[in-house]
Amino acid sequence: APESPMSSSESVKSLTELVQQPCPAIETSKDGKPQESSEPPVSESQSTTPLPLSGHSALSIQELVAVSPELDTYGITKRVKEVLTDNNLGQRLFGETILGLTQGSVSDLLARPKPWHKLSLKGREPFVRMQLWLNDPNNVEKLMDMKRMEKKAYMKRRHSSVSDSQPCEPSSVGIDYSQGASPQPQHQLKKPRVVLAPEEKEALKRAYQQKPYPSPKTIEELATQLNLKTSTVINWFHNYRSRIRRELFIEEIQAGSQSQAGSSDSPSARSSRAVHSSEGDSCDGVDTEGLPEGKQSGLEADEYSNATTKSQGGQAESAFEAGEEVPQDVRSSEKTESFHLGMESLEDTDDEGRLKAPRQSSPPGSQSSGETLETMPNSATEEDASTSAASTSVLTGESSFKSKESSEKMLSVPSTSSTLAAGSQKANSIQSLFSFSEAASSKNTRDNTLRKKKAANLNNIIHRLEKAASREEPVEWEF
DNA sequence: TCCAAGTCAATATG
DNA sequence: CATATTGACTTGGA
Questions:
Q1: Straight-line distance from CA A268 to C1' B13, in Å?
Q2: Which of A21, A50, A140, A393 fits as disulfide partner to A225, beta carbons 3.0 to 4.6 Å?
Q3: Rounded Cα–Cα distance for residues A434 and A34 (Å)
Q4: What is the rounded distance in angstroms from the CA atom of residue A417 to the CA atom of residue A453?
Q5: CA of A107 to C1' of B9 (A)
Q6: Tens-digit pLDDT profile for residues A346-356
């Protein structure tokens, strides 16, 4: 029943020429090598079905997705954002009308599009819809109409309620699917919506650093120590892992594309602000601000980081603290092109002992603080619960209460990021060779945080590899 | 069962 | 108001 009722109607018409990206690009190309993006495959595939489908919509979006060529998700979202802002159209309207998604989902999608090759069939759907919408000459007009209609309805509604009675709920319009459903009256069982306190998040992040894939036992411990439901802890790990992965994708994309070329971009400079650190991180105030176009992709201080783990059978040790070390160990063996590229940033590195000293210089604050330790005493890596856990819990010190005051500014790595030098590299060529891109950001980025993220990602990879160790099937890893 | 990917929807922010 | 964040749920795969 979760259907998105309406969606089908509109998309129907514009099925016409499928997606093809007009957006050539930004590119700049230094070495003029035009090759690239065009999709090679086109060649044969005889049937490939009639993309150009004729009027009728027989093709469902899913079918279109199936035959769609690779799309530049970043470029698409960029253009969609421009069009929407230029015409004062909101994401809610756009999402509900064109994509069949809620505002929050649209926001997320537009701000952090995953690269095409990393999307599942389902995940590509919204992008195909967006491309279709962009290709539709009347796209803006249609949305504007919708907007007007909505407003009208709103006004009407308001009117009646004010001067009349009839507080009738807007209820979902029309759509039939009624489904009995519960009127949902008075059960105030609304479920409050858990909101994790900053300290709790910090604790979970620390736990993640040590073990991205905690065992059920560890999860239980965490839940107990933090006084959270087990399911909350589980969900948190799922969400965190998944969101970290996403951050990495974003950086790949951004680093890869984007170059300056002022060109006509709309004024909106905003979109690129990438992710800022999450809450508490503290220090860092430093910023690499740099040139306007510099494109700072830095999200500073993010705490996403690695963990050296080895889960499974053994044990690993790790426990590094604030500092964070990148597990270099993995290097080794073989690498395919992409793999190599991926690692590159980690290893090249040079700066091994990069400072971890707070990059002060910043203004006020001066949180010098003493330092936080964050070693987690227990964490025996493996099982055994060690009842001792009680002692220093994950929450630094305190017992497991949700008190608020604490607040220590957690370590957090100083950003120290250096702006990426300009350099518009052209990693694309490689990218196009393989379906996946990976290279991108590595380039001259020595950015510390980036490294951390990469490390985190590697750990995920490692985890998967180990897990899959049993079967072999060489190729196919896609990092 | 676990996990990842997509989303939703409540809440935060601006 | 609009947009951003995020815990939880849903799907689909092993």
A1: 19
A2: A393
A3: 17
A4: 13
A5: 13
A6: 333 333 333 23
